[in-house]
Amino acid sequence: MRFTFLISLLPAIGASIAWAETDLATDNVPIAAPAYQEFCINVMSGFPNDDQIARYQFFKLTQELGVDSSPMLTSALDYFGDHTVTADTPVMEVIETIANPVLRQAAPELTIANMAFLIDFANVCDSYIAGQVTGLKALNPQLSEAEFNSVISEDALYMRQILSDSLFRINAQDHEIFGPTVRAYADALVTTRDRIEFTKFENDIESIEAIFMTDLDGRLARSNDVINQEMDRETLASSIEIIDEMNAEAKRKRKQEALYTLSRILGGY
After folding, report:
1. What is the pLDDT of residue 262?
2. How confident is the model at residue 164 (pLDDT cuts 50, 70, 90)?
């Protein structure tokens, strides 16, 4: 079931990022962090889970949600969305609202606003998100697996489809200003789906190739064992034959020496 992993995401990592005022060593002039930086850290610190996989899933999913989000689309989401969702809304509340199927059907404006929250986070905080994704992949190389990332891309595409459906439900596609942008976003989903399907196809081909190569390596190993066994048998047979010939030659020489000695004895030499 989709959104399962979204309900238990992300650690409290805000404490690890110093965004508060800083005193310069030279003149002690306080410098306040930009507003967007405060927004980014507030969002990232709103999760109780410190599991690496859960964190990676959220940050990677957020990156995917930011795809095809032009400034015009952002304005459209702000125009059509429910303005009760603000920058101070807890991110867990945002995720739970999107995951609620009843609200998705009954309140498309609320769904639009919550999706806009995550898209804004993806766009405004892209450097923070990219840093988290890169760092987590460095800590856990398994997070780079293509199949695992393909599943995250599918979840992101599903959420983007929810946003598009919500916009069409309120006839945003017919708006004189934002209509073309809404329709272009819906059309882009087809391209994204094709890209994901092609990526999955490539992954499947690579998996089949890996299985084939493993089977081929096994067959070659077994063939080499058979060949080596045959060679060992041939070597053994040749060795036995040589030994037999050497024994026969040694016997012949001993017999000749014995006859020669006997002839000398009988001849009186």
Report:
1. 62
2. very high
Query: Does residue 11 contact residue 48 with C-beta atoms inside 8 Å?
Result: yes
Alpha-carbon distance 132 to 61, whole Å?
A: 12
Token match 């030994």: residue? Answer: 243
Amino acid in position 212 = F
| Boundaries of every domain in the chain | 4-208
Contact 40, 117 (CB under 8 A): no
From CA 97, how far away is CA 219, in angstroms rounded?
54
pTM of the complete model = 0.62
- Distance between terminal CA atoms of the chain? 110
- Give the model confidence (pLDDT) of 206-248 as tens digits: 667 667 667 666 766 776 666 666 666 667 667 677 777 777 7
